[in-house]
Amino acid sequence: MLLEQLSAQPRDVQETFQKICNQLLSCNYLSRDKKDNTKQYYFVVNYKQFFDEFFAILGDEVIINNELGCIQLKNNYSQGSLKLKKEETYIILILRILYQEKLINTTLNNTVQITIDEIHNKYQSFGFKRKIFKTELLSALRLFKKYNIIDNLGDMQMSSTKLLIFSTITLLIPVMNIQECYNYIIQLENGKGDEIDETVN
Predict the structure, then answer these.
(1) CATH class held by domain 2-75
(2) Cα–Cα nearest to 175, from 121, 110, 96
(3) What is the DSSP string of 69-89?
């Protein structure tokens, strides 16, 4: 077994492997463009065979998208799924829309920058029956930050604060056409859609 070879690796490699395994089990996604994910991303790339063997035991699969610079831990048995609340579903879909719209003007990497205010504006453009509460938005953003989907560049309670949306969002919501997100939001508002289930371990 490959994992037996892991014991022959230097102690720091073994410890890093353990830490990243726990991190993936906790957050599911890693983004190469997120400062505190970069080293972990390349470590997984370099030692992928060990991660593959370890997570296969749990029924999980480690997916690396080199083009987007992100990693996903996917459970092949759809276990440990986290069901997003309706408002959280709206927000993640809006973030996906904003990501795609802004990506056109992004040249350095696959990370997009938006403001909190832009989320509010996009939310209001759908004409929902009620406005989103500040506490709901903050709770959702903190949740998505935990899973390395976004990161904040300031106080998230301020509407002018900038957020980074990472390419990991395309693994979370792999739509072929961004219009699908618009349609899904409308269906959900009309009671014809279900909240998003996100697989976590």
Answers:
(1) mainly alpha
(2) 96
(3) TEEEEEETT--SEEEPPHHHH
Would the CA dihedral through 39, 44, 50, 52 be positive or negative? positive
Residue tagged 């440990």 (tokens): 80
pTM value is 0.87
Q: Per residue in 106-162, pLDDT tens?
A: 666 789 999 999 999 999 999 887 788 889 999 999 999 999 999 999 999 999 999
Task: Compute the distance between CA of residue 8 and CA of residue 17 in angstroms, rounded to an integer.
Answer: 13
177 contact partners, CB below 8 Å, separation of at least 6: none
CATH no. for 82-191:
1.10.10
Distance (Å, rounded) from C-alpha 69 to C-alpha 64? 8
Please state the domain extents for the chain: 2-75, 82-191
Asked if pLDDT for residue 36 goes beyond 90, the answer is yes
